[in-house]
Amino acid sequence: MMKFVVCIFLFCNGIVLAQNENYVVENLSLNNENPHFGLMRVADAVIVTSFQLDKKGRVKRVQGQPKLTIFQGEIKNSETIENLSTVQIDPKAGVPQITSATLSQDGRLIYITTVYTNRNKPDVRFKETNFHLKVGEFKAGVGFTNFKVLPFCKPRFSYAHPALSPDGKTLFFTANIKGGKATTKGGSDIFKVDILEGNTYSEPENLGSKVNSYGKEMFPFIASDNTLYFSSNRPNGFGGYDLYKCKMNGDSTFEKAEKLEKPLNSVKDDLSLIMNANNTSGFLSSKRLGGKGDDDIYVFKMK
After folding, report:
1. Global confidence as pTM
2. Nearest-CA neighbor of 42 among 82, 10, 73?
3. Residue-wise over 269-278: b if at least 16 C-beta within 10 A, else e?
């Protein structure tokens, strides 16, 4: 699979894969051999990353690699996703790949993870494999366009996996920033910035050792009850990447992260999780055994 995958789905009659006294986890029927990951919930919609297909259903490629883009579907009854379609991106915007994304609550802005191209690469030395974050605005008849690199993104570091707080005032993301109070503990940490007036942002703030580890943290998501969910390959997991959660306190600090139980986690990579508004069900992406593709989407429900 392509090097930037760090590494839709309708629920019909899903197959029950695993269960315990608390949760039932089911594979979604729309999964196939292509990966589906990078889940993000915005109101009653889900954003997911997968390969872009042409009119004949074949995977589009960029320089020989499958092209990643984002899709959006509607959550129905907390267990189904309907009306899945490609998120419209202005073809003139020069966005080669999108590996993860989130939308503002009003759908006016989109935050994406992407890579530099020969058209917009920085004038300074940087790693071509580094990601960065961009924000674009929606224009009727065109789609999302006018993308701009977020001002705190420095080319020598890599930034990915944007996620907005429920009130839309804070942007969470992962990065490998080095130096100062924001220095990264492991391969990547979760950071946050305040979204200020006039399209400005505060300086990145590392969420600290109660959240981050000397492993790699990925795919943050903030639920409606201000619980942070994310994945990590830190030691003492079930295997590969595991899903974790930690509660945000009233002063915006976090309690110590705790590993989610099985079957939300498995012995394979479990990469991202989003909660529905009821906080008792949601969706997760995983490479667990019995799946149909590289990463599959599963629905989970509390008994």
Report:
1. 0.91
2. 73
3. bbbbbbbbee
